[in-house]
């Protein structure tokens, strides 16, 4: 069974962007929402998933993450808007009030 890897972009109310890679999008988004790891996303309250891509190759996912991280903000926003024109939280209904998977 092939594994899935995700490149994702998250944001906050101020529209600060964070790009990451993971093998479990649900788990990783929940960790961001719960602020489980100290660092950039915790400091800037990065809790809204606005973009993701899936691949079955980890090297492709890592290369894509590095590519996106190297882009100017405008190009990242343009990419997000191809999937999510309103920059809505794509994970808004993934979890219940106790932050468990719905």
Commentary on this structure:
- With 102 residues, the protein is an alpha+beta fold.
- It has one domain (5-83): GIY-YIG endonuclease (3-Layer(aba) Sandwich), CATH 3.40.1440.
- The chain is 36% helix and 21% strand.
- It has helices spanning 25-34, 40-43, 58-69, 73-83, and strands at 5-11, 17-22, 48-55.
- A three-stranded antiparallel β-sheet has the order 2-1-3, with helices on both faces.
- The longest helix has 12 residues, at 58-69.
- The chain starts with a strand and ends in a 19-residue tail after the last helix.
- The mean pLDDT is 93.
Kindly list the characteristics that best describe this protein:
about 100 residues, alpha+beta, GIY-YIG endonuclease, 3-stranded antiparallel beta sheet, 3 strands
| CATH-defined architecture | 3-Layer(aba) Sandwich
Order of helices and strands: EEHHEHH
Mean pLDDT: 93
Q: Radius of gyration from the CA trace?
A: 13 Å
> What's the total count of β strands?
3
Largest sheet: 3 strands, antiparallel
- Major beta sheet, strand line-up: 2-1-3
> How would you name the CATH homologous superfamily?
GIY-YIG endonuclease
Question: Treating each run of at least 4 consecutive H or I residues as one helix, how many helices?
Answer: 4
What is the percent of helical residues? 25-40%
- CATH topology heading: GIY-YIG endonuclease
Q: Provide the number of structural domains.
A: 1
Structural class: alpha+beta
